[in-house]
Amino acid sequence: MRFELTPRTTVSPVVRALAPVAAFITAFLIAGFVIWLMGRSPVAAFQVYVIQPLSDPWSLQELLVKATPLALIAIGLTYCFRANFWNIGAEGQYVIGAVLGGWLALKTHGTEAGFWVLPAMLVLGIIGGALYGLIPAFLKTRFGVSEILTSLMLVYVAQLTLDYLVRGPWRDPKGFNFPQSVTFDPSATLPPVWEASRVHYGTVFALIAILVTAVVLGRTLFGYRLKLTGDAPRAARFAGFSARSTTLAVFAISGGLAGLAGISEVSGQIGQLQPSISPGYGFTAITVAFLGRLNPIGILIAALVVALTFIGGESAQIMLKLPLDLTQAFQGILLLCVLAADALVSYRVRLVSRGGGK
């Protein structure tokens, strides 16, 4: 006996719309069962994970802060995934964007440089991420190397490069030997959106990227090109679309947005370079992209939901003594539930005997 998936001839729009809701409920029930097995109250965990962050003004600001890099990186990854290219190295592109943009902040530190420093840092962050993203794209188009392996391995190169710099040539001489750079000058710091707020202008960049991507993917020839390349590569070649140029373009866009997320986080939230500038935003953004079904508005909602799990996970670690790894496990369960819901909506499951009968 085996299970077999057969495509459904028609799928109700209402059912398709309700599938993510059912997936979220299922994921929360599974997580609640795991928490119960660990000897904690699922109701108390839900209160800490969801209710408290959404009812506290400071936590709502933190929600936007954590959702910003997730949304920026996930939007960039959407370009690759739509064209059926697998950029798994957004974490490295995020780091290199922070490093290249942070270099200018350190270079101009204490020089009373003008207003041009911050825009130049942002541009350097985008360039750094884009160039780093083009490495696996070039290796794929020139030598046929798997972009999955190269983009993933380059993450560790980027992280070790940052670690070397903040422990060596870029270390703050007055930092009590901690592996960190000097604090950026005000001219190299991304300002808050409103006074006395933790929400910086990186959030505005994320919203702009979402709106632009919605137009590009839904209303332009380039968006159609990505869809055709991902769904029917041969048809894309017959239509005159170059696979090489498409590969380079989507990896450059993806890396550039990840680099923008990196320099925005460093200049807007952290204020200096240090080894731990990311809790894994680049990898988590892959989950966000698929939770949002590669749709810009869906990605915005998914980024907020996943950011909520980060904040709730930190609170649960303190208040309920739950391990922070449980948050990552929940994010994985959530992704699996959404993918399973999509599959069950699009396909009918049948139990088939080895002879072919039902």
UniProtKB/TrEMBL annotation:
Keywords: Cell membrane, Membrane, Transmembrane, Transmembrane helix. The chain crosses the membrane at residues 21-39, 88-106, 118-139, 148-166, 199-222, 243-264, 276-292, 299-320, 326-345. It holds the Pfam family BPD_transp_2. The keyword rRNA processing does not apply. One of its GO terms (molecular function) is transmembrane transporter activity. Signal peptide: none annotated. It is found in: Cell membrane. It is a multi-pass membrane protein. GO terms for cellular component: plasma membrane. The keyword Transmembrane helix applies. InterPro entries: ABC_transp_permease (IPR001851). Its main location: membrane. This is Nucleoside ABC transporter membrane protein. It comes from Microvirga subterranea.
